[in-house]
Structure formats: C-alpha cells, structure tokens
Design brief:
By secondary structure, the chain is mainly beta. The chain has one helix at 96-109, and strands at residues 7-11, 14-18, 23-26, 30-36, 42-51, 54-61, 65-72, 78-83, 88-91. The protein is built from one helix and nine strands. Strand 6 and strand 7 (65-72) form a beta hairpin.
Length: 110
C-alpha cells in the first residue's frame, strides 16, 4: 500500500489525491498550476514517507518551504499546484499521460 503510486482524479469540482496522505482540494482554491522537469532540493521530511525515490507527505523544500509531495520515482513531468492559501503540492507519476490529463483538466476549470 505504501509504495503504490498515488492516484489523482477530478470529480465534483475537486481534485482528489488518493492513497497515503491523500487529500481533496476544491478546484476554485487552486491559484497556480504548472509542469516542470525538476523540483527544488528536498531539505528534510516533516511528516511522511521517504523510501528511496518514493516520497509522500509533508517535506521542506529549498526556496519553497513546506509542501506536500506525492512522488513515485523521478518520472517527469512534475505537476506543481499552489492554492490561494499558500499550500504547495507537487505530484508525479510514471504515466506521463495521466499527469498531462490532470493538468489539462485543471487548466480548463481554473
């Protein structure tokens, strides 16, 4: 269960992050979304799982501060979200199509 890839889905005007450290974010709370090929340096884990390249939970990132990571390896692109209240979420998945689908769906609705 712990090492299973995190899944994201959009349903009922919300982004649902499923699995360990999952959460629901209303789409109208999303301020910014982008894709990148890298993430800032991870300084330390606040609360979560760090098992090699699998990182889930709350981490401190250089020049970013505290954020939620849902990383399942070092696959790109990384999906970066920021909410209006300052929450930062970074997600990846080995299936690039699923990342691009979520990105495009959020862009259409935000």
């Amino acid at each position: 269960y712990i090492a299973q890839p995190t899944q994201m889905q959009i349903k009922d005007n919300a982004l649902h992050i499923l699995g360990l450290y999952g959460k629901t974010i209303e789409l109208n709370r999303i301020r910014q979304i982008n894709l990148s090929d890298a993430i800032p340096e991870i300084l330390f884990r606040n609360n979560g799982l760090g098992l090699g390249s699998i990182k889930k939970g709350y981490f401190e990132l250089k020049d970013v501060g505290r954020c939620s990571l849902y990383l399942n390896g070092s696959y790109t692109p990384y999906l970066h979200l920021q909410t209006y209240d300052g929450e930062i979420i970074i997600f990846n998945n080995k299936d690039e199509e699923s990342i691009l689908h979520i990105y495009n769906e959020i862009r259409k609705r935000v």
